[in-house]
């Protein structure tokens, strides 16, 4: 069923004539490759769950073990482990064993920037502020 929808959508796109072909060409050039786009979408999917977002927020500040994350996030250790596995497979977090405990941290700090931008966006929406230009 999904393939049929994709084929119909592709046919519809091929039958359309651009109002501004130059703008369409420039916009097409700005879209990342399929591989990069898939990773971007995968990252946003990982952020789309409140429990995972809380875990990632916590890990953006310090390394934590499963039990401490469970206490912090308010779910069972099993539920946290499930979310950590999800985040690990998407290469967003890593674990380091210390004795019998594994401490988790972010793979890199790019998520800090994503969170900060999302918070700015939320603040603008909540306060009804206009957009501001970037330097």
Helix content: 55-70%
**Order of strands across the biggest sheet?**
1-3-2
- Measured distance between first and last alpha carbons: 46 Å
CATH architecture of the domain at 34-127, by name, is Orthogonal Bundle
Low-confidence segments, ≥5 residues, pLDDT <50?
A: none
Task: Give the structural class.
Answer: mainly alpha
Structure notes:
With 135 residues, the chain is mainly alpha-helical. It is 66% helix and 10% strand. The chain has helices spanning 2-15, 21-30, 34-47, 50-61, 66-73, 77-89, 110-127; strands at residues 64-65, 93-98, 101-106. It is elongated, with a radius of gyration of 20 Å. The model has no long low-confidence stretch (mean pLDDT 90).
Describe this protein with a few key phrases:
single chain; 135 residues; mainly alpha; Arc Repressor Mutant, subunit A; 3 strands; 66% helix
Write a compact overview of the structure shown.
By secondary structure, the protein is mainly α.
Reconstruct the topology from this structure.
Elements: H1 2-15, H2 21-30, H3 34-47, H4 50-61, E1 64-65, H5 66-73, H6 77-89, E2 93-98, E3 101-106, H7 110-127
Antiparallel strand pairs: 1-3, 2-3
């Amino acid at each position: 069923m999904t393939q049929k929808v994709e084929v119909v959508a592709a046919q519809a796109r091929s039958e359309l004539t651009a109002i501004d072909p130059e703008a369409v060409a420039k916009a097409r050039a700005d879209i990342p490759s399929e591989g990069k786009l898939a990773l971007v979408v995968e990252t946003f999917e990982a952020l789309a769950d409140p429990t995972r977002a809380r875990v990632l927020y916590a890990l953006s500040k310090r390394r934590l073990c499963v039990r401490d994350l469970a206490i912090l996030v308010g779910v069972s250790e099993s539920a946290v482990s499930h979310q950590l596995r999800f985040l690990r497979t998407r290469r967003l977090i890593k674990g380091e064993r210390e004795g019998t405990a594994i401490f988790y941290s972010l793979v890199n700090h790019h998520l800090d920037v994503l969170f900060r931008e999302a918070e700015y966006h939320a603040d603008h929406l909540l306060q009804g502020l206009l957009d501001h230009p970037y330097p």
